[in-house]
Amino acid sequence: MRPEGATIQQPNGNALGYDSGNNRVNNKCTTNRISNKTMTDGYLNFDEYIRQGEPAQRERAEAWRVAIGLQAVDGLQVSDYLRETARKNIEGDITVDEARELVKQYYIKKTAHDEGNEDKEEADRVSANITKILSSETLDFSAKGFIALHRRIFEGVFKHAGKLRDYNITKKEWVLEYDTVRYLNWEDLRRSLEYDIEQERGFSYKGISSDELIAHITRFVSGIWQIHAFGEGNTRTTAVFAILYLRDLGFKVDNDMFAQHSWYFRNALVRANYRNALEEIDYSPIYLERFFRNLLLGEQWDLRNRYLHIHPTNEWSVQPNLAVPEHVQDKHRTTTPTSTPTSTPSSSTVTNLNTNSKIYTNNKNVIELVQVIGNDELSIKQMMGLKKLKDRKNFVEYHLEPALKEKFVRRKYPDRPNHPRQKYLLTAKGQTLFNELMKGE
User: The pTM is what?
Assistant: First the structure.
């Protein structure tokens, strides 16, 4: 298996996957059954499903796109067979469990071993496993759950799947001029995982702005990755864990950020955890923050790897926000940060939030309900009283259910919707919207 992080860099800083002969992989599908609408140059056209497919097809396509895209962090690409199998699952011909079994049997029965076959098998089986995980809404938010997630992702691929490493590691990184991040000592892995996750579990999102939310999520995800609990597969495990956790917080993380920018995500984690006193380089979480700002706030930072290099050329010394006119950026042009920068300021309110933001909603009933609940826990009767509404059915259908569906609001007892003492409170996503609303008053 190729060590995590192995890749070939393009001149513009993007990463290329490669086979064992260091040749760029360019899959050409020969299956005649696949229409031009669903395949482009041998690659599944996920956008076609996401734009025009049924809701279930869109969800399955988004899960496969993320799962396949994440293989880029290890320079891996999936086979044509996996793409055809994914298409069958997306279209509803087979279940995701059947897709996983087909991939497993394909490599058991495969007699001809092509160049790079071992890498393709890893990419195929891991992609199928991640798709299965992302298709569920469950999350065991604990150190034990994080370790189990690694086992589920790499089941049938690594013998050490789900096992903490018992040795120390270093990794030469292109963005660090082949220096390494200082990863955690192997003897402290479980204790550190337990501490970080327990601290996050106790964190309250009440009263924080969207900027503070981004900075906090960045610190948490960065810290989990820096532990580097496993011998291989740390970035893919961290990415899947982050997606599941953000969903648990109320954010619908279903776009292509992790799929299209998985290599940037890894390099941003590297920069967030690297310090070199001799060269006056401090930890730089700003790059990872910009990834999450694009993901959650709908911003448009240019996520290319050359901006993350510790000694970039003049051309790559300033990472641009593509939503800001170039002449405005030139007025504020600065060199690459060498000390820990703060988050990009934002004066967003509900009226001027980017419509691509995961905090945004144009449903006035949801906005009003978020304002009514605020920092409290309220029953349906209490919410109706505060909104001066009398028709319970109307309130549930047009106010409460949309807020629950968009994950601005959650039940205190989620497993028992009809609990006699059921109350409703804001999710982290809803709390962030509430804070933005309060800023705008």
Answer: 0.76
Q: Of the CATH numbers 2.30.29, 1.10.3290, 1.10.760, 3.30.70, which one belongs to the domain with range 158-346?
A: 1.10.3290
Centre a 10 Å sphere on the Cβ of residue 421 and count the other Cβ atoms it contains: 8
Which is nearest to 216 in space by CA: 128, 111, 289, 319? Answer: 289
Q: Please name which of 151, 150, 148, 122 lies closest in space to residue 237, comparing C-alpha atoms.
A: 150
As to burial, measured by CB atoms within 10 angstroms (0-12 exposed, 13-18 middle, 19+ buried), residue 11 is exposed
Any idea which fold 364-439 has?
Arc Repressor Mutant, subunit A (1.10.10)
User: What's the mean per-residue pLDDT of the chain?
Assistant: 83
The C-alpha atoms of residue 220 and residue 255 are separated, in whole angstroms, by 21
CA angle, residues 132, 192, 199, in degrees to nearest 5: 80
Worst-scoring range by mean pLDDT, 94-98, 134-138, 186-190, 353-357? 353-357
As a whole number of angstroms, the distance between CA 253 and CA 296 comes to: 8
Q: What is the C-alpha to C-alpha distance for residues 370 and 138, in angstroms, rounded to an integer?
A: 25
Kindly list the domain boundaries of the chain, sorted by start residue: 1-136, 158-346, 364-439
Angstrom distance (rounded) from CA 314 to CA 336: 10
Which residues make beta-bridge pairs with 16?
8
